[in-house]
């Protein structure tokens, strides 16, 4: 059994170098884990950001739904009123569409089948 002497309660927070790497560009012996993690997260965000610049299937479906609803609203209401009411109609459509999709899952709660939901949604409008 080894005897470890603790001089101060803050000794546990001292950075001990177990394996160092020294190069002209970076010195990993003095680099903390937090800084290294920040660099890794930054590189990950840059790589994912570049990958998200291209359209994927989700973005294409979202754009198609947006354009379809926008064309319906502008065709039915038209003029400036179509632009005013479009965000409200789009939000209600997406909310009800998502609620109905979730209620298609077996043993899930069908929110649009309840009278309280329908009445409260109509009062909000």
Quickly describe the structure:
The chain has 125 residues and is mainly alpha-helical. The chain contains four helices and no strands. It has helices spanning 33-51, 57-76, 79-103, 115-124.
- The separation of the N and C termini measures 74 Å
- What kind of sheet is the major sheet? none
Report the count of strand segments.
0
In angstroms, what is the radius of gyration? 28 Å
- Overall average pLDDT: 80
Written description of the protein model:
InterPro entries: ATP_synth_F0_asu, ATP_synth_F0_asu_bact/mt, F0_ATP_A_sf. This is ATP synthase subunit a. 59% of the residues lie in helices and 0% in strands. It has 4 helices and no strands. The chain has a domain at 58-105. The protein has helices at residues 33-51, 57-76, 79-103, 115-124. With 125 residues, it is mostly helical. It is elongated, with a radius of gyration of 28 Å.
């Amino acid at each position: 059994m080894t005897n470890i002497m603790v001089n101060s309660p803050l000794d546990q927070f001292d950075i001990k170098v177990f394996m160092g790497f020294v190069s002209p560009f970076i010195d990993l012996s003095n680099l903390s884990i937090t800084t290294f993690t920040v660099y890794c997260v930054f590189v990950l965000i840059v790589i994912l950001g570049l990958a998200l610049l291209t359209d994927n299937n989700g973005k294409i479906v979202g754009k198609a739904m947006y354009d379809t609803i926008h064309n319906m609203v502008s065709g039915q209401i038209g003029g400036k009123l179509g632009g005013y009411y479009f965000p409200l109609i789009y939000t209600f459509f997406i909310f009800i569409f998502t609620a109905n999709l979730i209620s298609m899952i077996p043993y899930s709660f069908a929110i649009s089948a309840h009278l309280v939901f329908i009445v409260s949604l109509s009062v909000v409008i």
